[in-house]
Write a structure and sequence with these properties.
single chain; about 80 residues; mainly beta; five-stranded antiparallel beta sheet
């Protein structure tokens, strides 16, 4: 399950504030766990990767085609990568 949630507040015509949360899960695929060459070694002990993301966004319209936008923070655990030999 990859849940997402968000709150959006539009206090003025030209301003929008957003609080967003998302979480994702990804299991290693066959290529990542079985890839075996002279440079890389197969790794059958890979664990799933999880990512959590929190965003605080402030969008401010300055002109018809000009906006300022806020920031992002994310955390990755057990990132899947190919080990070098």
């Amino acid at each position: 399950m990859n849940p997402r949630a968000g709150l959006i507040w539009h206090p003025w015509q030209s301003s929008v504030f957003k609080v967003l949360y998302s979480q994702a899960y990804r299991a290693p695929n066959a290529y990542e766990s079985d890839y075996d060459t002279a440079d890389y070694k197969a790794n059958h002990n890979l664990v799933p990767e999880t990512i959590r993301s929190c965003e605080l966004v402030w969008e401010q319209t300055l002109a018809k085609n000009c906006r300022l936008v806020g920031a992002l923070s994310s955390t990755t655990r057990s990132k899947i990568s190919l080990p070098r030999t």
